[in-house]
Amino acid sequence: MDSSPGTHANTVSGDVYGRLLQARDIHSVTINAGERPAPPPGADVVLDPPRPATAVRGREELVGALLAEMRAGAAVPHVLTGPGGFGKTTVAAELAVRARAEGRTVFWVRPDSVAASMIEVAVELGGSRREAEEVRTTRHLAMRWVWRHLDGAPRPWLLVIDNADRPEELDPGNRPGDQLGWMRASPGGFVVVTTRVDDPAQWAPARIHRVEALESGAAVSALTDHAALEGTAGAGELAERLGRVPLALSLAGRILATHRVLFPDARALLAHLEEGVDRLDELAAPFVTGPDADRRLLSGVWDLSLRLVAEREPYAEPLSQVLAVLGPNAVPVPLRRLPVAVLAAGPLEGLDVVGLARAVNALLVHGLVTLGEHGGETALRMHPLVAETIRAGIADGAVADIALGLLEHQGGHDLSLESAAFHELWDVLVRLHGPEHPAALVALAHGLRMHMRLNPGDEAVPPLEELARQAAGLLGATHPDTLLIRHFHGDALRAAQRIEDAEEVYRSVLGDREAVLGPRHPATLSTRHQVALQVLLRGDRDTAEREFLAVWEAYAGDETDRTAITALENLSYIRMLRGDFDAAEQGFARVRAARAGTLGERHPHTIDADYYLARNAAERGDHARAAALFDAVAAARAGIMGGEHPQTLLAKEHAARARETVNNRRGGRTRSE
Prior knowledge:
Blueprint: E1 2-3, E2 10-11, H1 60-72, E3 78-81, H2 88-101, E4 105-109, H3 114-124, H4 129-135, H5 139-151, E5 157-161, E6 189-195, H6 200-203, E7 207-210, H7 216-227, H8 235-241, H9 246-258, H10 266-272, H11 278-284, H12 298-312, H13 316-326, E8 333-334, H14 340-343, H15 353-365, E9 370-374, E10 377-381, H16 384-392, H17 397-409, H18 415-433, H19 438-454, H20 461-475, H21 480-495, H22 499-516, H23 522-537, H24 541-554, H25 562-577, H26 581-598, H27 604-619, H28 623-641, H29 646-672
Parallel strand pairs: 3-6, 3-7, 4-5, 5-6
Antiparallel strand pairs: 1-2, 8-10, 9-10
Helix pairs in contact: 1-2, 3-5, 7-8, 7-9, 8-10, 9-11, 13-15, 13-16, 13-17, 17-18, 18-19, 19-20, 19-21, 20-21, 21-22, 22-23, 23-24, 24-25, 25-26, 26-27, 27-28, 28-29
């Protein structure tokens, strides 16, 4: 207590506990302070690591690399990244077991309690509880205080910060990689972080380890470990069905161990999952409990990823649902299949190019998709199990509408993608609206048609014929969707070389479309074109030529319309058959240029135009040029439809024949000389 001369005021500095007496002109004062109150107890946090329930399979190399870095004294933290459910926590838990065996102290920090847990770490290392409470409310002071204790720890430690899926929890004001917050390298021990956020810009210079799905052998071993069986029939098939994802394997194993009457082996559980992988969650839910249960079911683990993404990019979740439809079974989705003009509808309304880039990047960072090259194009892939789980969660029919619009926008460009995507779209629509909904019928028809194009033959004829009957019964014979399906039935008959049957179906559709839609409607003209094509295939060139010309003139030379440009292609083909090679060449070149401009260089229809240019070269006797063109067509078709597809083999056959003709002519000249 100080009393300044000439004043009647007393001042006090510092903390005072108990009672304080303030008086005037008293020169001797004794204050009996009460006992200083004890600080409140620390936060109720758990610093013990989880213990692996079974042997950790398929991660030996990664665990070994982390052990080596830990023993050597790593200069930077190490970060395990990957999608939820892929086993990042399991790897860290196994490392914790090894670290304890080597005499290290292990601290395990869980999400949502990072600051409180780190303060408790310092207390366990000898920090004063009183000091802990004093620094707790001052973030930067608390960080310095904690790391002072970690750096000076009496024995080496392992610190795991698990599920750091919100990097700002590690340092709200800086990148975690700046090492100014809760994640830092230390001479006292080894720091490992697990996270879904696969963003080197966030973590650098930390070393990143990407945790992928298990290899086949390790996946089977993990499944049988959790099932507590030496081996089980169908384990390999079930592991593949589950995408070799550790979380799914552990759930399946526990189901097999618990329900041995229902599922005596893996094959029985596999059959149960035919209707959807969401059945795995239904069976596993009773024994997956606790506050973090959502992290331990398939639906929950990826729902959590989507919630984390949506916090920053609201377009990311509906985009992921669209991608889950377009790219099932890890089918690559080229970025060109995501035009903003078609995407920006429903839950994606307002999306622009920048928004699309940000949403894609958010999905990449959280491991929900990967980016790579396919066929010379940049494409996105989604793990099959992730895609299936996300599709099961689609509740908005507008997402299905967007997917349908995207598939129709570049229809026929990527046959494998479209065949698989239409099947999944049909499944989503059936779940949302029922199997008799018009959109579901149309999606199924598209899927059958795409399958037919990939697998020529007559197997698509009966299902499309039955679907056309079903649509007529539900919607009426002249409903536009019924007419579309009936047209597809004609396509199947034509592909099966049943030309007269196809013409009969097309003529029936043409009459109904003229009556319902009008003679100049694009759908009507498309069917009229197909009627003309069947007439040509029957050998009536004159009638076919008049019909093709009528279709072409109906579009007034609009080279952006597919039907119009195909009519020009068939007119050029007739001119080639008549020996007018110059006119045919001019027409085929015009078709090719139009398709390359509207569909792209690698579209099957553009490649068809190259095929007819090659045919025209061969017909006019330019066999060297024909051979080169046929070779290019064969290579392009092999990349799209496969090396054994009939159209690929046809181009190869024509190329070989043209080369043989060239060689024979050269040989003949040599002999004559």
